[in-house]
Amino acid sequence: MDERADPGMGDPASARSASVSRNTNETSVSVSVNIDGSGTAKISTGVGFFDHMLDQLARHSLIDMEIEVKGDLHIDDHHTVEDTGIALGQALSRALGERRGITRYASIDLAMDETMTKAAIDVSGRPFLVWNVAFSAPKIGTFDTELVREFFQAFAQNAGITLHVLNHYGANNHHIAETCFKSVARALRTATEIDPRQANRVPSTKGTL
Ligand SMILES: [Mn+2]
User: Residue 9 C-alpha to ligand 1 middle, in angstroms?
Assistant: First the structure.
């Protein structure tokens, strides 16, 4: 495995951005993020439904994301989805740096038509996923619904965030998946934003995250 990181050294010291390239025998992933962006997305994973979900993640987190993946889709979508989650999580963690000044905690109950999903985030440095989402079908089009969890597991682990996702109810599996991405996006936006009341402090009594 070859992993290279650009911690954004060429950017101003205040810029919260990072790039990660991750190459294995299964996938080649390039990710760039800018936390203080406007939600612009340039996404190409070769998996249409996943591109649609990542678009939502960028748009509603206001984190600019460029994601290009070439994966072993002749096998299935699993490696592509998981490795995108790993690289995106690593890029976010690097962009957050020592996590100084962040709001840290956020949660939202997000409605979409008949579906309601909660995401609660602690940008803690401690990776943890609690996943309480059930799909009523194994596929959305050609996309395996179980990969939604795989993505968020890889993302939370590598971003160093505690992430709880709870689907309260819903009937349509596309809506259930989409509310997972949108609720995480909105919670991520708030939790990673600079809190002006503690802009130069690490938000922990330990002094480190
Ligand atoms: Mn949709």
Answer: 36
